[in-house]
Amino acid sequence: MEYSYYPGCSLHATGVAYDKSMQATFKALDAGLIELDDWNCCGATAYMSVKETVAFTVSARNLALAERAGRDIVTPCSACWCVLNKTRMYMRKLPELRQHVEESLREAGMTCKFDLPVRHPLEVLVNDFGIDQLASRSVRSLNGLRVACYYGCQIVRPERALEEDQEVPMALENLLAGLGATPVPFSPKVRCCGGMLVATFESVARELTGRLVEWARVEGADCIATTCPLCQANLEVLQEGGNGEGTAKPPVPAVYFTQLVGMALGCSEREVGLHHNMIPLKFEFPQMEKPTTQHSPVSPLGKGGNRGVAEPAPTTEAASNV
Amino acid sequence: MPWPTGLESLPPEPGIFGKTEREMQEAFLAEIDRIPGGERLRRCIQCGTCTGSCPVSYAMDLTPREVVAYFRAGAIDMILRSRTIWVCASCYQCTTRCPAGIKITDLLYALKRVGFDQRAFPEKFPVYVMSETFVGQIKKYGRNHEAELLRKYFLKTGVMRMIKQVPLALRLFRKGRIKLTASKIRGIEGLRKMIARAEQLDEPRLVEEVQPLTRAVGYQAIG
Predict the structure, then answer these.
(1) DSSP, res A97
(2) Res. A307 pLDDT band, cuts 50 70 90
(3) Average pLDDT of chain B?
């Protein structure tokens, strides 16, 4: 399988570990991740608030490039995913705006039909590969890793990257549980991290990330798994002192979900960029082995609906005793 | 800012406003018309689900529910003068939960655009500076060079704020998360042409909007 890879600006800087872990994960799966040639910034939310036609045109240029390449476009940055997908959707619904955008694209000899889907790697991993296949290809179990699965906003709202409940998505929990990890109950999983408010209203962003971190800490999570470069940066940077220094409470590391998937698939810590994380993940990844546990879906309420108690996935023995 | 002052600004009839105010509201209504499903605004029952769902409503002076109420009362200048539109982190929680299907986040974006056009904020306003700097980056490189964006942003909004960020920048740098050189896309000339054309196409709309001065706004406009 081959995909057009749209990393987005963050993945070349603060989100470099997301870029590395994406490439490593897809390589381990023998899937082609071909960077979209000469891609430009998606425009992000800042551009959307200035000029409408300009914002959609800037974003549409990438869709036009992807159409030329002819492969589904995969973008790990939630904000990029949201903006590119919104552009595609609006162009299909608003003929007048589309005319303006197409006219602007023609200035550089480009055209776009807006047919090609824009996809997030979480959805690609779950749908194109499947949790069972990922589990069978994994060589290192994440057994014992307690993880708070955090989706953030933009891949569940306003449009969904996955056909799932917008309030209680479970794909990430199922994926990581399938690889042996233990998802902890994490109700604020679709609450906002503050996004760009980190630069404009920092105290507000600090409050929002603080609540997320506190929740994960109370549940005893070893880390928060994120799907977005801005969420990950905010969660790390805004934990007081930037890396948890000077806080009475222990900091909670924030990792990219692809870092965990990559580790399970046998990549090295360096390959998935764990050395770029500011709060080190204190978890001893086991030596390469074949996991013995079978994947079982996680209930949205946690195991047995018991908040605060996250049991390890049942083994086949326990299941046969019932 | 040219807010109407004195008698000439008093509405001749409820829902019909003085010229300046009317121009602003016309511009705003045109913005709303462009949002798919924008007409659903009239279905608001003021239930407050948006405010209850909003993670940043605690930091707003007008809550999202109040924004809709103020709009329907025709008091758009009150909305533009509030900090609400600038604090919105565009997380879309209000939009997905609204029982009337009103796209509140897009509404706030539309208000933000009107706010930018009207310069409805103080000098060195962080949100405005951030947007302007961001747009400058795209026109210059085609991509956003994070380090330069933040350096320029903090320089414009206050040098002290930048100095406070230095330890963090150093930590990020040590972790290999700051790229020092910006990379320009090959198609930058084409992109600039596209943006120039799109800017032209964005402009005439604003002139058209102020033509039909007799059009009713506020409650009258939304029925």
Answers:
(1) H
(2) very low
(3) 79
Contact assignment for A38 to B185 by CB distance below 8 Å:
yes
* Residue pairs between chains A and B whose CB atoms are closer than 8 Å: 189
B109 burial (CB, 10 Å; 0-12 / 13-18 / 19+) is: buried
What are the tens digits of pLDDT across the range B36-69? 667 788 789 999 999 999 999 999 999 999 999 9
Strand partners, A74: A5, A119
Residue of chain A nearest B177, judged by CA positions: A14
Say whether B90 and A201 touch across the interface (CB within 8 A): no
Q: What is the CATH number of domain A130-313?
A: 3.40.50.11810
Token look-up 């940055």 returns A77
Residues of B (2-31) whose Cβ lies below 8 Å from A: none
From A38-52, A179-193, B188-202, the region with the lowest mean pLDDT: A38-52
pLDDT in tens, A207-260: 999 999 999 999 999 999 999 999 999 999 988 655 555 566 889 999 999 999
What's the rounded Cα separation, in Å, for the pair A144 and A312? 8
Higher pLDDT, B6 or B71: B71
Interface test with A, best of B177, B183, B206 (most A CBs within 10 A): B177
The reply to whether residue A197 touches residue B186, judged by beta carbons under 8 angstroms, is no
> Looking at residue A153, what is its pLDDT?
92
For the stretch A249-260, what's the b/e string if a residue is b when 16 or more beta carbons lie within 10 angstroms of its beta carbon? eebbbbbbbbbb
Contact A166 B96 (CB under 8 A): yes
Q: Where are the domains of chain A?
A: 2-119, 130-313
Q: What is the CATH number of domain A2-119?
A: 1.20.1050.140
Instruction: Report the 10 Å Cβ neighbour count for A128.
Output: 16
- Confidence at A122, pLDDT banded by 50, 70, 90: very high
Q: What residues in B contact A46, CB-CB < 8 Å?
A: 130-131, 134-135
A108 contacts B96? CB cut-off 8 A: no
Ordered domains of chain B (ranges, CATH): 13-120 (1.10.1060.10), 126-202 (no CATH)
The mean pLDDT of A37-54, rounded to a whole number, is 79
C-alpha dihedral, A21 to A24 to A29 to A31, nearest 10°: 100
3-state secondary structure of B103: coil
**So what's the pLDDT on residue B163?**
84
SS3 B139: helix
CA terminus-to-terminus distance, chain A: 41
Chain A CB contacts of B36 under 8 Å are 90, 93-94
Q: Which residues of A touch B96 (CB under 8 A)?
A: 157-158, 166
**Helix/strand/coil for A226:** strand
Of the residues B57, B175, B209, the best mutation for testing chain A's interface (the one with the most A CB atoms within 10 Å of its CB) is: B175
